[in-house]
Amino acid sequence: MAILTLLKPIHFPPVPEPPAERDPKPRIMKLGKLWLYGNVILLDSNRSCSEVAFTANEASQKLLESAERESEEIVLCGKTLVCGIHSDLHQRASIVPLRWGAPRIVVLGSGFYNHLGPNLDEELFKAARLWRYEFDPLTDLVVSKYEPMETGLSGKRSRGTDNLIRRIASASVGEILRGTFEYY
Length: 184
Fold this sequence. Notes:
By secondary structure, this protein is of the alpha/beta class. It has helices spanning about 1-5, 60-75, 90-100, 110-115, 160-170, 175-180; strands at about 30, 35-40, 45-50, 80-85, 105-110, 140-145. The chain has one domain: Rossmann fold, CATH 3.40.50.450.
């Protein structure tokens, strides 16, 4: 009993609330020449893309593994991966944030409805659905230079889409918000 009376209760300071990291109301919006849907706060994050994903139209197993490793390094360093879905290499990179529960910015080669379905809730491609059964606009952001209903270049390799991925990964948030960067 004497030992218990000698011990004083320890008071810890209250744990602060984590900062808001999600846009509470995902909506389609136009920003300069770009269309956005999802967590637009990701534009203010530290962004990067997998350079390996730009290397070839036909992906060998070795290139796929390299793109996956590079994307994993990006995600595990706390950066937001900017990727596409228009090639096997980009799709392989795009799956990495899903596995780790991390956000991603996905650049599309056509309008949102063409990729996400009529309710904007379908995950972007078949292999991604193994990790997450539907698209989560509170976590991810999709970007397109096409209007939401346009068909564009779905499924085709596009230099313009590749350039847009690189520019979003490297541009300042101010350049993106003002729409003052070139990507063609």
